[in-house]
Q: What sequence folds into this?
């Protein structure tokens, strides 16, 4: 019997992990990406214990441990430097079975692409239309040479929060919601990071209407992000000097991280998520996955992790039950969890980014009073996830 076929739209973390997961159950996969090449774009990404367990399940755990940087803990601080909370990694690992890792996105892409056949990835292929038939689905793609139509047993739509195919499948869906803030990201190269002696913790610092976070990632580089509450469609400056001025007076090493960052690593994005529920993640032989299905805000550090969970769940469900029953199970297993996380992330974002002095004080006071055990268990919904059929690698 010939192998089942899947076309995956989007070579992001969700699409590439799905390629891996389906390949492992014997499917022939093709990933179609609109970009002309897979470039080393993006900044850092945190991989939480739930996604570490998912990558272990796919046999990618050793590569993650080799290339990712294990974090010794998570901390929250105030702009003065005072500590609001700290969770040691051992506590997280004991409770949830894996620690946090952080690495450059380009490194995670490399790791996910390593096991794929060279012809599995087609760049310069932008999906424009989709027809989700009962036993197969057809997607129309535009390339620089023209338009092609491809049919497969399954089409996985992993084209991100602004998904064009989601809009085509669900024309009545309202689309992404603005989270109320913009985020800049940067990378400090290892030779500039090393003398700074920044500890390997996932660190976040809260201010009023502003936040800063950082993590040491692979090869000794430091990844940082800086958020500011701004109206939708505002266009804040794309300039490290001005950004450093906005965060003047924040505790060390924040000012030093700005000045050690090469301007060409600076990125800025407005943050959107899917607040409105989708009627379904599955439409005939089409499955929505990752941000296309359930974009969350970065406030819970789970968007990529959930996409990785989706990929494992989809392939495991299809392997166990066959394509159609597996797709139904995927929808049933993923929708409640991810919808809950999307709503939580939006709420958390509003609290974290509040400009209101009284609300910020209340936030800081309540968080400072929480014992470590409560902080650890509050993360349980996200971190306690395990692969559906137990570890397989
Ligand atoms: C500032 C910030 C920090 C974050 N930090 C974390 C973190 O630490 N941990 C975490 O787990 N998550 C984090 N996230 C969330 C995470 O980045 C996303 O959830 C994740 O990248 C989603 O992956 P995806 O594959 O679903 O979509 P994407 O990464 O958006 O990939 C979609 C891909 O599809 C392609 N595409 C789009 N349209 C088409 C088309 N029509 N045809 C073909 N290809 C198409 C795009 O070019 C892209 O390559 C963060 C997000 C932000 C904004």
A:
């Amino acid at each position: 019997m010939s192998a089942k076929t899947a076309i995956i739209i989007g070579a992001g973390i969700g699409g590439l992990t799905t390629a891996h997961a389906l390949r492992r159950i014997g499917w022939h996969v093709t990933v179609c990406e609109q970009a002309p090449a897979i470039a080393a774009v993006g900044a850092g990404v945190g991989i939480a214990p739930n996604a570490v367990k998912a990558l272990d399940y796919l046999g990618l755990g050793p590569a993650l441990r080799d290339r990712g940087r294990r974090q010794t803990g998570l901390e929250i601080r105030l702009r003065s430097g005072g500590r609001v909370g700290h969770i040691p990694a051992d506590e997280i690992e004991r409770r949830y079975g894996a620690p946090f890792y952080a690495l450059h996105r380009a490194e995670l892409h490399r790791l996910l692409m390593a096991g794929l056949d060279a012809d599995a990835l087609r760049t310069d292929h932008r999906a424009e239309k989709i027809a989700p038939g009962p036993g197969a689905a057809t997607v129309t793609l535009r390339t620089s040479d023209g338009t092609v139509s491809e049919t497969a047993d399954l089409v996985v739509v992993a084209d991100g929060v602004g998904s064009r195919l989601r809009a085509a499948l669900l024309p009545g869906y309202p689309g992404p919601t603005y989270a109320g803030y913009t985020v800049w990201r940067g990378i400090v190269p290892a030779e500039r990071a090393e003398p700074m002696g920044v500890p390997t913790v996932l660190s976040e610092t809260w201010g009023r209407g502003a936040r800063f976070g950082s993590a040491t990632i692979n090869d000794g580089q430091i990844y940082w992000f800086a958020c500011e509450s701004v109206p939708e469609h505002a266009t804040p400056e794309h300039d490290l000097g001005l950004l450093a001025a906005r965060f003047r007076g924040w505790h060390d090493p924040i000012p030093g991280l700005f000045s050690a960052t090469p301007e060409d690593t600076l990125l800025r994005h407005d943050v959107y998520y899917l607040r409105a529920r989708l009627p379904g993640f599955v439409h005939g032989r089409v499955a929505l996955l990752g941000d296309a299905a359930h974009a969350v805000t970065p406030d819970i550090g789970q968007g990529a992790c959930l996409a990785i969970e989706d990929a494992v769940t989809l392939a495991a469900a299809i392997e166990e039950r066959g394509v159609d029953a597996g797709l139904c199970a995927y929808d049933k297993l993923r929708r409640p969890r991810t919808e809950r996380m999307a709503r939580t992330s939006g709420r958390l974002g509003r609290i974290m980014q509040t400009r209101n002095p009284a609300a910020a004080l209340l936030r800081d006071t309540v968080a400072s009073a929480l014992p470590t055990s409560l902080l650890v268990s509050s993360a349980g919904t996200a971190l306690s996830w395990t692969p559906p059929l137990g570890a397989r690698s």
